Amino acid sequence: MKRISLVGRSVSPLKVMMDIEVPLWIALILKEQDKCNLIPPPWLNWSNLNRVYKEEVHNKYRFSQLPWNWQEVALTFLRFAPDDIDEPISRLFSILQDLKEIRKVKAQRGLKELNESNIQLNGLSSMEIGELKPFVVQVMDELRLLHGASNEAILQENSDEEVEARD
């Protein structure tokens, strides 16, 4: 196949039995046409995901390192390229679900410690942040309202004390 020019990069000419890194969407198109096999990323295997799961359980206040799009990539491989994965799909799907659930619980636990000016979501994937976004926005709005009301009460109390001091 000839060289493919894309915005910001190009894909080298594709040749038979040659490994080449291409954007996932191109690989999926070629896979659908039976023109290639996909190579799963190194982290997408049961032993690595099980190690990450154990880290998640052990570190209650920190997320383990996974790619920012780990869920999307994993689900894409499980759905569109299961024949390119050497391990049982059900086993991978199970550990991925377990990882997703424990990370969700940790994120929700972390949201209980929010304040009106700061939220730290280091280590969460784009999909995890997207799932939490509506809840976080609502909580942050409520915290801003509460913080504003408490500041107004403090200002009112201080101005009342100044009036009494002048009398």
UniProtKB/TrEMBL annotation:
Keywords: DNA replication, Nucleus. The keyword Protease does not apply. InterPro entries: GINS_A, GINS_bundle-like_dom_sf, GINS_Psf2, PSF2_N. It comes from the Eukaryota. Residues 1-39 form the DNA replication complex GINS protein PSF2 N-terminal domain. Component of the GINS complex which is a heterotetramer of SLD5, PSF1, PSF2 and PSF3. This is DNA replication complex GINS protein PSF2.
